Amino acid sequence: MKKRAVVGVGVAGFPEKAAGNSWAFLQWGLGLRELGWDVWLVESLRANELKNQQGQNVSLSDSVNLTHWKKILREIGWDDRATLLVDGEKVEEQPLRDFAAGADLFLNLSGHFKRPDLVEKVASRVYVDLDPAFTQIWAKVYQSPMNFSGHNAFWSVGLGMGRGAVVPDTGHEWKAVVPPVSRKYWSKEAVGQSVGRASDLGRNRWTTVAHWYGYAAVEWEGREYSNKSPEFEKLRTWPKLSGIAPLVVTDLGAGEERDLFEKAGWEFHEPGPVCSDWHEYRNFLASSRGEFSPAKGGYVTAKTGWFSDRSVLYLSLGRPVLLQETGWSNWLPEGMGLVAFDSLDEAVERVKEIEKDYAAHSRGAEKVAEEHLDARRSIPQALAWL
Predict the structure, then answer these.
(1) Coil vs helix vs strand at 321
(2) In the predicted model, is pLDDT for residue 215 greater than 80?
(3) What is the spatial distance between Cα 260 and Cα 265, in angstroms, rounded to a whole number?
(4) Contact assessment for residue 77 and residue 41, using Cβ atoms and an 8 Å cutoff
(5) Which has the closest alpha carbon to 106: 188, 37, 24?
(6) What local confidence, expressed as pLDDT, does residue 59 receive?
(7) Strand, coil or helix: 316
(8) C-alpha 381 chain-centroid distance
(9) Which run of H or E residues covers position 42?
(10) pLDDT tens-digit profile of 83-115?
(11) Total Cβ atoms within 10 A of residue 255
(12) CA distance 54 to 56
């Protein structure tokens, strides 16, 4: 008999310009299926989260949220084992209740699913933290409702969590896991000869996709835990020093900060053409030369060992990744295809090393994905924590 899992995702809640976000959640469900599990996807929304294309609050049936939910599930060939719940909207819950009553596993990614009554009979109820340090500081310092209750195990994509990361004690034993990737969808073979506008945009460029600010910095014990903006600032002269003009798909609008970066050789593109459709998002990553990206300052300060679910995709597509060190290199192979940097000078030196033997680094990137990040390998390693 197949093992059963319920996976709480955040897909419908982010219906626009959020292909990367959707896949950060979908990888877990798809990965479990590839391992032979019977999987049910669930998501819960508040009524005020339902919007139409004009941003107006509407019913579920008229929302872009439902359109996005159905489109994504159809495109990945998911059957009817998926339930989208909305406060105040009548949705058939009994099939989900029956499935969950005897399920082995509930994964609540970022705590998005907030109907504990539907999964209380699941044996292992796992909270999966996708934002290490911030999650713990929000909970402990700012008393934010993080939806920890009802879970009996706690994982984090911070590879240093429970292994040296400096974060507030929330009273939970956080276990480190890597973001998985379904290579059925994220490989050079899956991309094939696919072309599109995003392919042309990223072709042979060092790129990344990022929220420039994301959310506000937080403080704990007199230290600031910042977003990506200050880390980008430390790298502003990288194009001049490396001879490479990076392209960042981001929500950074016009203004003095953007002007300074553009004068320094950076290029920017708004997220719509790349992030509105996951095929275009995949094309963009696959056509890029590699990823060059800082991490959020908070991940670095707290030594979380955070590793990016987006970097996982670049690697799986055979694209080298030059990623700021957060401590992740203590647990993932670093140096060939996946390369760390701590400073501006090191970021310049390391990209030159990659370019000197790009073919080898491309092969190395794919090898890291195959041996360490493939959901068929990484998810069983995570399950070993239970």
Answers:
(1) strand
(2) yes
(3) 9
(4) no
(5) 37
(6) 95
(7) helix
(8) 19
(9) strand 38-45
(10) 999 999 999 999 999 999 999 999 999 999 999
(11) 8
(12) 6
For residue 342, CA distances in Å to 131, 223, 251 come to: 20, 19, 25
Scan for tokens 């300060």, then name that residue.
301
Radius of gyration from C-alpha coordinates of the chain: 20
- For residue 150, the SS3 value is coil
Burial label for 93, CB within 10 Å (0-12, 13-18, 19+), is middle
| Nearest-angstrom CA–CA distance, 322 and 294 | 9
Q: 3-state class of 229 per DSSP?
A: helix
Give the bridge partners for 124, in sequence order. Answer: 105
Q: Which residues contact 225 (CB under 8 A, 6 or more apart)?
A: 133, 134, 137, 217, 218, 219, 296, 297, 298, 301, 302
Range 188-373: architecture per CATH: 3-Layer(aba) Sandwich (3.40)
pLDDT tens digit sequence for 291-342: 999 999 999 999 999 999 999 999 999 999 999 999 999 999 999 999 999 9
Write the pLDDT tens digit of every residue in 49-94.
Answer: 999 999 999 999 999 999 999 999 999 999 889 999 999 999 999 9
Q: Please give the average per-residue pLDDT across 230-254, as a whole number.
A: 97
Secondary structure, 3-state, 255-283 = CHHHHHHHHCCCEEECCHHHHCCHHHHHH
Between strands 105-109 and 4-8, the pairing is parallel
Strand partners, 43: 84
Mean residue pLDDT across the chain:
96
Question: Which two three-digit tokens encode residue 279?
Answer: 């095929």
Which residues, 6 or more positions from 161, have their beta carbon under 8 angstroms from its beta carbon?
129, 132, 167, 174, 175, 176, 304, 305
Q: What is the dihedral of CA 56, 16, 216, 292, to 10 degrees?
A: -160
What burial class does residue 48 get, using C-beta atoms within 10 Å of its C-beta: 0-12 exposed, 13-18 middle, 19+ buried?
exposed
Residues in the chain: 386
Cβ neighbourhood burial of 74 (10 Å; 0-12, 13-18, 19+):
exposed
Q: Side chain identity at 120, as an amino acid letter?
A: E
DSSP class of residue 87 equals: T
